[in-house]
Amino acid sequence: MSRINILSWIFKKNHEKKRGFDLGRRSKLVAFDMDGTLLNGRVIYFIGERFGFLEEIKSIMRGRIPPLEKSKIIAKHLAGLEAKEILDTIKKIPLMTGALETIDRIKEKGYRMGVISDSYTIATSYLTERLDMDFHMANELEVQQGIVTGRIFTPLGWEQANCSCRRSICKRFFLRKFANSMRVSISNCIAIGDSLADWCMLEEAGIGIAFDPKDQDLAKYADAVVKEKDLTHVLGWILNR
Ligand SMILES: [Zn+2]
Q1: What's this model's pTM, rounded to 2 decimal places?
Q2: Which homologous superfamily does the CATH classification assign to the domain defined by 3-40+95-140+153-239?
Q3: Residue 57 C-alpha to ligand 1 middle, in angstroms?
Q4: How far is the CA of 135 from the centre of ligand 1 (A)?
Q5: What CA–CA distance (Å, rounded) separates 206 from 186?
Q6: In 3D, which of 64, 46, 66 has the Cα closest to residue 54?
């Protein structure tokens, strides 16, 4: 396992007990995207606003650069910032409407749950800990003596999954990986995301939900589209199937 996998892999073994997980019951796994799905906004926009380079970030995001290059260029803007200040900014980002209720209802069922994001592990580790989730995966910012260097470790995975996404993180690959490690069949996986960064995870999952989609094309890969900006609307697709 690579360094980033070891660092980012959270698997709490006591969850079975804590959540009354019943091995006789068909288990499921729910993978959330973070920006615009679990969080009401994009982490990089909040950081850009806090440190005065929001317009540069927005202009890069609009640009026609390949997604992997985009992730690397954006990370360079963070060079010199204190990791602690970045984390303080992340902590202030509001959760999506209905997020807490949605997570509580999924927990009641004993399902596995986590975050697969093309943002940063500094955000996903904080969020999954706060929400008591089982796993997370994202790009990792390199930090030396508390200062972000501007380099990132990208988990990739598309080269192994034979996926055409070519992004810094292939969500299809990591959905498969977490499902395998938790012994959940891919048909019992539910993936929820709002942008084209999520398309391969939505296509791969038994049920892919496009939540408040930012791009119409995302619906092509989804089994369900939730247009309301309220996460509780995904529950019907998770709990009753
Ligand atoms: Zn992919």
Answers
A1: 0.89
A2: HAD superfamily/HAD-like (3.40.50.1000)
A3: 23
A4: 18
A5: 6
A6: 46
